[in-house]
Every structure is written in structure tokens, then in C-alpha cells.
Automatic annotation (TrEMBL):
GO terms for molecular function: inositol monophosphate 1-phosphatase activity; metal ion binding. Homodimer. It catalyses: 1D-myo-inositol 2-phosphate + H2O = myo-inositol + phosphate; a myo-inositol phosphate + H2O = myo-inositol + phosphate; 1D-myo-inositol 4-phosphate + H2O = myo-inositol + phosphate; adenosine 2'-phosphate + H2O = adenosine + phosphate. It comes from Champsocephalus esox. Belongs to the inositol monophosphatase superfamily. Its EC number is 3.1.3.25. The keyword Hydrolase applies. This is Inositol-1-monophosphatase.
């Protein structure tokens, strides 16, 4: 049977590339910054504009009613964030908004497509580096059309691990994040890193530049595309407690193999987050 989502996959690559060009151009102009959930959760006109461009192009191509959309900026304006069985696009127009604002050169467009709650394909365009990562379920993962694979390192002492700090600055959470990082650093590992974009971090796992990336507090739009790219590159995803990965749970460990991932999980100090699909509590 012909791959019924091939056209959508190819189109997503085109849309991500075009969106990345808009971001690069916007980065050369003055950037007006606003905040969302807290003072370090940044948003710009470019995030909103690029999301409109992406969703507008997808609706034009595939029709209004047949597909659903979960986009970071639409959700922040009150749109539902529920993954149903319907074909659903999960979009982060600018992953790494803080990087974008500061001119730190890692910013990605992340577009995933899920059917029956399973991610069929994902595209991550690291637009400042001009690197196009993509993967389709069962067809492998690629960077600029070259196949990519996770690293074969099994010895944690020979690994690089990515961790991010997210936007929760409550002293209890920051304490847990640093305590986890300290324990991992002192295993010891070769190094800790973080690009400031979850989508790019996952692609770094997928291409074998690092062994693992974990974060609590990320959102489905940060990781949905990266999830299929990591899996298709031979890696795996788990919850931070070792249970099955759930894209809406805001918790994730991605890594090259079970040995590395299990070793990282042993050190993670878990803190509470509200699921992406939790009912909205009206204040
Ligand atoms: O807000 P945004 O720049 O799209 O996404 C953020 C980035 O992916 C960052 O690496 C991660 O640590 C945060 O948790 C995300 O929210
Ligand atoms: Mg993001």
C-alpha cells in the first residue's frame, strides 16, 4: 500500500524550511519580547507569526476540518491541547525562543504529525545552522538527507548528557535540577551540555553527538517531532521514572540505549508538573 502520509511528510519539510527562513530574517531585525507564564518564559511576534504561517499553509494544503492542530502559541491563547485519534499536527514554531531573543544560534522549527495518538513523522529544522532533521515511522532518520544513528557508547563514563533548566525558577525545583545535574556530572560523565532547544537536543541524541537528553517541564510541541527522530535513529524514549514515554506528560528521557538511559534515570530527582492535556482550571 502506498504510504498515505508521504505527501504530508514532504510538505512538512517544505513548510519547516520556509518557516526557518522567516525566523532567520526576523532575527536580523529588532525583536520585541513579551512574557507568557512567568518572566523567563519569552514570546515574540515571530513565534506568533510563524505559527500562523505554518498552520495556515497546512490548512490550505489539507483542508480545514480533516486535521487537528496543537501549536505552542495557539495553546497559550487558550486553544485545547488534547491529542485525539484524529490526524494531528503538533507544532513549535520557534523552539528556543530565549536563544532567538539573545542571538544564541540554536533555534528550531518543530513539526510533528500524529495519527491515532502515534507520531507518524517529525521534522526539526535547525534554522540558524540550516540543518534539516526528519524521520518517518519505519523509514529511518535523516539530517540533510543523510541517514543518522545514535551513538553506540554503553559506558556512561564516556558519555555526554544534555540537560536543560526550563523556565520554573522556584527554589525547590531549581534545587532538584541542579542536584540531578551534579550527581550525573560526578558519575563522572565526559560532560553536560544544553543547546536551549529541546527539539535540537533530541536531534543531537539522534545523530550520536550526545548519548542522552532529559527534561521535566518540556511540552508536547518541544519533543513530538524529536521523539520519532530519536526512535528512527535507533534510540529510545522513556518517562523519567522509567515508565513508558507519554508525549503529553511533560517528562522525558531520550537516549541511545537502555544502559545509558537507565543509568540517568537512577539520578533524576522528579518534581511535579501539570500535564499538557490537563483540564484548564478557571480562576
Ligand atoms: O519555549 P521554547 O523556546 O519553545 O521551548 C523551550 C526549549 O525547548 C528549551 O530548551 C526547554 O528547556 C524548555 O523547556 C522549552 O520550553
Ligand atoms: Mg519549544
Amino acid at each position: 500500500m502506498a504510504d498515505q502520509w508521504q505527501e504530508a511528510y514532504d510538505f512538512a519539510v517544505q513548510v519547516a524550511r520556509a518557516a526557518g527562513a522567516v525566523i532567520r530574517k526576523a532575527g536580523e531585525e529588532e525583536i520585541k519580547v513579551q512574557t507568557k507564564s512567568c518572566t523567563v518564559d519569552l514570546v515574540t511576534k515571530t513565534d506568533e507569526r510563524v505559527e500562523k504561517i505554518i498552520i495556515g499553509s497546512l490548512k490550505e494544503q489539507f483542508g480545514e476540518g480533516t486535521h487537528s492542530f496543537i501549536g505552542e502559541e495557539s495553546v497559550s491563547k487558550g486553544q485545547p491541547c488534547i491529542l485525539t485519534d484524529k490526524p494531528t499536527w503538533i507544532i513549535d514554531p520557534v523552539d528556543g525562543t530565549t536563544n532567538f531573543v539573545h542571538g544564541f544560534p540554536f533555534v528550531a522549527v518543530s513539526i510533528a504529525f500524529a495519527v491515532n495518538k502515534e507520531i507518524e513523522f517529525g521534522v526539526v529544522y535547525s534554522c540558524m545552522e540550516d540543518k534539516m532533521y526528519k524521520a518517518r515511522k519505519g523509514q529511518g532518520a535523516f539530517c540533510d538527507d543523510e541517514p543518522i544513528q545514535v551513538s553506540d557508547v554503553k559506558d556512561i563514563h564516556k558519555s555526554i548528557i544534555i540537560c536543560e533548566h526550563g523556565t520554573d525558577r522556584s527554589p525547590e525545583t531549581v534545587q532538584k535540577i541542579f542536584s540531578t545535574q551534579k550527581k550525573i556530572l560526578c558519575i563522572p560523565v565526559h560532560g553536560l551540555r544544553g543547546s536551549g532547544t529541546a527539539a535540537t537536543n533530541m536531534c543531537l541524541v539522534a545523530c550520536g553527538a550526545v548519548e542522552a537528553f532529559f527534561e521535566i517541564g518540556i511540552h508536547c510541541w518541544d519533543i513530538a517531532a524529536g521523539a520519532v527522530i530519536v526512535r528512527e535513529a535507533g534510540g529510545l524514549l522513556l518517562d523519567v521514572d522509567g515508565g513508558p514515554f507519554d508525549v503529553m506528560s511533560r517528562r522525558m528521557v531520550s537516549g541511545n540505549n537502555m544502559v545509558i538511559v537507565n543509568r540517568i534515570i537512577k539520578e533524576i530527582e522528579i518534581f511535579d508538573t501539570v500535564r499538557d492535556d490537563a483540564p484548564i482550571v478557571k480562576k
